[in-house]
Design brief:
Rossmann fold; about 375 residues; about 35% helix
Length: about 375
């Protein structure tokens, strides 16, 4: 791995502050890696335009004092998690006016303890060794969300609401899984009898804060259906011809199996997402978690708010427009942003009360 030392760093600190050689045709961001894993540095250098590296948080502080760090787009920390040290580093960033730089932690340092949830010191936790996607969309969102300042007229999240919402999610999701266990078994058998392939479909989805997680559903399509998206793009009910945000959904999708069509029209394919709710990936009520190819188009200032709300099984989109083919991209995003701005426990209960009549859809979209 080739490095070049930064010219403006004092000679005594050059051994602590290394600049990774720029590689063309990569993500147009600059990273700062804090750690000592050579394979991680190699991986980052292959996916970013350029980057810097230090072995520890203390070395990073010294280096950042000696350099204009405004060109840095993301901080990736790959050292053992110690909250005191991280708080000191967080204070340093704020004092240097660098607090808007996203901080991502390598989740290998949380193997023997619970990953910090809603930690104001960390913007996201990823598996650096098994990262499968381009960092561009995630970093774009994290940068926008940290720079985003809600208008005075917009409601701010009430901490007590977050606690009560999580408690409600766990209680209801647990109860539903127990009560619906016989239904889950029948569905699993029907899927297996109709077509070869797994019973469950799981894929990476982007939820609150552009946090990427494994999303569960009953499989309703033939195997490898995702690979046929390009071939069916001309049937997309959303206008995908123009630049900007994109969603993908088609009427009478030929990839859907017969059992799958029934599961979709009755929303029974969504039941495995109760597991996502228990895991904390999703909530019962929120904005729909998006496939990464859709989420990547919504990281601009205009649309970033829709990721401020938790991912949900049901939400405004489901009760107002589910199963209707006349919804525009702008209308769907507007509903997502509206929920993000106005969410509260009573609002959630109202949405849940209106969900049953939206479960049975009349059109195959």
């Amino acid at each position: 791995m080739q490095f070049e030392t930064l010219k403006n760093v004092p000679q005594t600190e050059k051994k602590q502050y290394l600049r990774v050689a720029t590689i063309a045709n990569k993500t147009a961001f600059c990273y700062y890696y804090i750690g000592a894993d050579a394979s991680s540095i190699s991986f980052l250098s292959e996916n970013f335009r350029s980057g810097f590296a230090s072995h520890s948080l203390e070395e990073a502080r010294k280096s950042l004092r000696a350099h204009n760090a405004q060109e840095i787009d993301v901080l990736i920390i790959d050292v053992p998690y110690r909250e005191k040290e991280l708080r000191e580093f967080h204070s340093f960033l704020r004092n240097r006016n660098l607090h808007t730089i996203p901080v991502i932690y390598n989740d290998c340092h949380f193997e023997n303890e619970q990953t910090p949830s809603q930690n104001e010191l960390i913007d996201d936790v990823i598996d650096l060794a098994n990262w499968q996607y381009d960092f561009s969309s995630k970093i774009s969102f994290l940068k926008k969300s940290k720079e985003y300042q809600p208008k005075s007229s917009e409601q701010k999240i009430n901490p007590s609401y977050s606690v009560s919402k999580r408690a409600f999610d766990i209680l209801i999701a647990s109860l539903l899984l127990v009560l619906l266990l016989p239904v889950l078994l029948v569905i699993a058998i029907a899927i297996r009898l109709e077509s070869k392939g797994p019973i469950f479909y799981n894929a990476k989805r982007a939820g609150k804060g552009f946090r990427i997680f494994k999303f569960y559903k009953f499989r309703t399509m033939e195997v490898n259906a995702d690979k046929k998206i390009d071939a069916l793009a001309h049937l997309n009910q959303y206008d995908a011809a123009t630049a900007g945000p994109k969603f993908f959904k088609i009427s009478n999708d030929p990839r859907i199996t017969r059992v799958g069509r029934f599961l979709r029209n009755t929303s029974l394919d969504e039941l495995p997402q109760l597991i996502n709710v228990l895991k904390g990936d999703m909530s019962l009520v929120g904005n729909r978690p998006l496939p990464l190819y859709e989420a990547a188009t919504l990281t601009t200032n205009e649309f970033v708010e829709r990721f401020m709300a938790p991912a949900g099984i049901t939400g405004l989109w489901q009760i107002k427009k589910r199963g209707k083919s006349d919804m525009s991209t702008e209308e769907r995003i507007s509903l997502d942003i509206s929920y993000a701005r106005n969410s509260n426990l009573l609002y959630d209960l109202w949405i849940m009360a209106h969900t049953p009549k939206a479960l049975l859809q009349k059109t195959d979209v």
